[in-house]
Amino acid sequence: MSEPVSIDTFMEGVKKRNPGETEFHQAVFEVASTIFPYIADKPIYHKWEIMRRIAEPDRIVSFRVCWQDDAGHIRVNRGYRIQNNNAIGPYKGGIRFHPSVNQSILKFLAFEQTFKNSLTGLPMGGGKGGSDFNPKGKSDAEVMRFCQSFMTELFRHIGDDIDVPAGDIGVGGREIGYMFGQWKRLTNRFNGVLTGKGLEYGGSLIRPEATGYGCVYFLENMLKHDLKAEIEGKTALVSGSGNVATFAAQKINHRGGKVLTLSDSDGFIYDPKGIDLKKIDWVIDLKTKRRGRIAEYVKEFGGEFHAGKKPWGLKADVALPCATQNEIGIEDAKVMIKNGVKAVSEGANMPTSQDATHAFLEANVLFGPAKAANAGGVSVSGLEMSQNAAHITWKEGELQKMLRDIMDGIHGKCAQYGQVKGKKYVDYVQGANVAGFVKVADAMLAFGVV
Ligand code: NDP
Ligand code: 2IT
After folding, report:
1. To the nearest whole percent, how much of the chain has pLDDT over 90?
2. What class has domain 208-368?
3. At what angle do helices 375-390 and 396-417 cross, to 10 degrees?
């Protein structure tokens, strides 16, 4: 049996075993720094090396993906699937296609997903996959050939009770369709092996909306619980203009808030009149059908485009980072705190650096960490799996209520584990980490050493 080690010794080991994987180190340290104090007086978790085992993926699959572009050239990308932990259910998590994708980024995402999926209360383990393929500027036919080639290897490693991928950055309805088509062709099976499917072939209503809506529900719950406040009348900074950002912006509008910004990797747009529902529909069409850039918004609706910049310098009441990891650094956080931002709800995964997170917590800014705030997406993915397994289709109203209930449940668990003596508000970072950890850890204890 192992003796307790300090967090420094633990992190030294993580860094030694995973050299150069900075995003993975960051995610593990962020979780460990709340779990180590929690388990200080619970030696069983040390004895059975639970944290060390969760921070070592069950399996990493990495493979070559060859495809032919429209000009006839042979292209070679790298594909991955990280199966982090299946203690409480089949591996579950998205697939990301972006040129920045590497093993470190996918390992951080798979690790985070393990705790997020636990928080949902549904039986799902943690995984993540992807490729350094860049869908931007590619034709539909090129994206199709890439997706087919990617699935031609991935299909051996997944299954509706093994590992169930979904979308993430660069992977939406179009890519899921191509991948599911290839899965069906290779296996001759039609099941819930992927989520985020089209409604015609086993997808679930409200899956596209679920992450953004859930992120606003979490924000709403934090404001209500800790400040007795509402979204109505508040101004919001939203980053990103993809799946999560646009539906978060939509729900802010539903609640009577005003969205001031959206962004992409070229810069951000600022619309002082507010990005209303009609304008959001236009952005969704721009991004999913025309595959355009957010700068085009200004030609259509006015406002300002700030090239190469992030929106965090503007004054607003709340912020929803919905683009990518580490998009809010310590300098951004200082400006946001000075400008009086009251709450941050993370739609993206790990969008806030750890020093920025600390600065928010120190300044009593309500902070909804990704693994809690953006869990609505994977929750409805879990509901899609249930519908597929039972060969049924739930109605929109039923699913909306289930999503709301799950997000309320996550908020409740975070509030339960996130009470810190002397702190004015709930520490949702601690709450989410500990609540997510306990279920996975106790399942692992039940299994013994495996
Ligand atoms: P999309 O591909 O739909 O949109 C991503 C958006 O973020 C785009 O506007 C994109 O701009 C921008 N973006 C991506 N990378 C960068 C970068 N390096 N710098 C600046 N902007 C960038 O992805 P999603 O909306 O699905 O995902 C956004 C975030 O939400 C990710 O962190 C993802 O992991 C997380 N998430 C997604 C869930 C889902 O259900 N889809 C569930 C939970 C979390 P551009 O077009 O210029 O690349
Ligand atoms: O980060 C995430 O939770 C996602 N990209 C969604 C995962 C899923 O399986 O729906």
Report:
1. 98
2. alpha beta
3. 130
